[in-house]
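Comment thread on ticket #2218

A.B. wrote:
> Attaching the input chain for the structure job we discussed in standup.
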Amino acid sequence: MPAATASQTIGPYWHLVEHPEWADLTRFGAEGERITVTGRIIDGVGAPVTDACVEIWQASPPADARFPGFGRAGTDAEGRFRFTTLKPGPVPGRGNAQQAPHLAVTILARGLMTGLRTRIYFADDPLNEMDPLLSSLADPAERATLIARAEGPGSWRLDMVLQGEGETVFLEV
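C.D. wrote:
> Ran it. Output below, let me know if you need it in another format.
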């Protein structure tokens, strides 16, 4: 069997998952509305994915010396991940269409030949109705796989299902 290529594995960067500080995008003193985003990565039979790397990126607020705009976290024995970041704002999309506040997400794990890409939106944001991606999904159940629910002040949760019933909407890039 040939060796895996860089696109087939997280490669030499897996060690960065072992640094929990990467999951705190506010660690350099970023100012703004802090939020916690948590969830679980679940496989097609409902089992936790215990070896996933979850990466988030956000365009708003813009990255600077105190806010990297990018974070990485590994999943634990229950498939859970956790990020601390600043609440994103709306951003322009293609053709200057307004996009609702969201986090871009990539999931890397054993058995995935390439990373899975999706988004995390926030429940009850009035811009969700006009967001080009969300409004392109006719099925409310599919839209729901991208929308985090509030679990308390400043705390959001979205579980992601890799395949099967309730599968999260993943994006082609």
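A.B. wrote:
> Thanks. Noting for the ticket: The mean pLDDT is 91.
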